[in-house]
């Protein structure tokens, strides 16, 4: 006969096993172009969902770096295709050097930003770049997508806000 | 059609042009698929425009070369993510991804800054695959690149 202690161990093991099944990641399928909400606000940006990019990047305008309490901060503006504008202030997380496809090295400021895609909102690393010659001001890379999103490249605007 | 889930990296093959295996980056940010080729030469057989090119299908092995020949399907001006415009040959050939074999259009580029020798773009993925960025080699075995 099993001791009470052994029963307790088996029961907890079963319960834990059940629990981990319940909290298993539920994945959301999105298209390759979507509208994302930025920085806990109603401000949305059209974004390209790019499984080929490691990280996310955003087209920042009027970028100004400043020091606040000894820390590096950055102030920048975002403007969407509807002509709405928002100003964002964030601490600078780091500066990265990115090798461009033409071989040139570009310095980029990286910040953390809340991005919501449908029902999922995440704090994610975003680099500030000049995307003025691109169609989409926000590029969402794999570090944001995993493990919650699947990308269906035959679809666009699947998220209804 | 039921869509299969694939990872952001997969090993694929092009049986008709002799590429047994090449690692592809599955790129929902790119419309067309691209192969990193070099010594791309255009020629003609009985009025059929053809292209001969070489490639290193294994990322870390530049000694291994595959020489391919294919019909030119199209010639296109392609703008890369840096905004540069380039004239590229397009070939149409079957690709094998997992147990699926189907024809795709592939542009040939000799851009040597490409880390992956193969990019699989949206037109090839459409209606067939859904991409899970947290996974790699879902429908293919992981090979050694050496």
Overview of this structure, please?
The complex is a heterodimer of chains A (161) and B (146). By secondary structure, chain A is mainly beta. Chain A has helices at residues 4-22, 142-145; strands spanning 28-30, 33-38, 44-49, 56-59, 61-68, 71-79, 85-91, 94-99, 105-117, 120-129, 138-140, 149-151. In chain A, a hairpin with a 5-residue loop joins strand 6 (71-79) and strand 7. Chain A has a single domain, classed as Beta Barrel (Cathepsin D, subunit A, domain 1), CATH 2.40.70. The termini of chain A are far apart. Chain B has one domain (4-132): Acid Proteases (Cathepsin D, subunit A, domain 1). Chain B starts with a strand and ends in a 14-residue tail after the last strand.
DSSP, total strands of chain A: 12
The chain-level structural class of chain A is mainly beta
Greatest interface by residues involved: A-B, 27 and 27 residues
Backbone shape of chain A: globular
The CATH architecture of chain A would be Beta Barrel
Task: Give Rg of chain B in angstroms.
Answer: 15 Å
Number of helical segments of chain A?
2
Task: Describe the sheet with the most strands of chain A.
Answer: 6 strands, mixed, barrel
Return residue spans of chain B where pLDDT drops below 50 for at least 5 consecutive residues: none
CATH fold-level assignment of chain A:
Cathepsin D, subunit A, domain 1
- Summed up, the domain count of chain A is 1
Beta content of chain B comes to: over 45%
Instruction: Specify the overall morphology of chain B.
Output: globular
Q: What count of structural domains of chain B?
A: 1
List the helices and strands and how they pair.
The complex is a heterodimer of chains A (161) and B (146).
Chain A: H1 4-22, E1 28-30, E2 33-38, E3 44-49, E4 56-59, E5 61-68, E6 71-79, E7 85-91, E8 94-99, E9 105-117, E10 120-129, E11 138-140, H2 142-145, E12 149-151
Parallel strand pairs in A: 1-12, 3-11, 4-10
Antiparallel strand pairs in A: 2-3, 2-9, 4-11, 5-6, 6-7, 8-9, 9-10
Chain B: E1 4-7, E2 9-14, E3 19-26, E4 33-36, E5 38-45, E6 48-55, E7 66-71, E8 74-79, E9 85-97, E10 100-109, E11 118-120, H1 122-125, E12 129-132
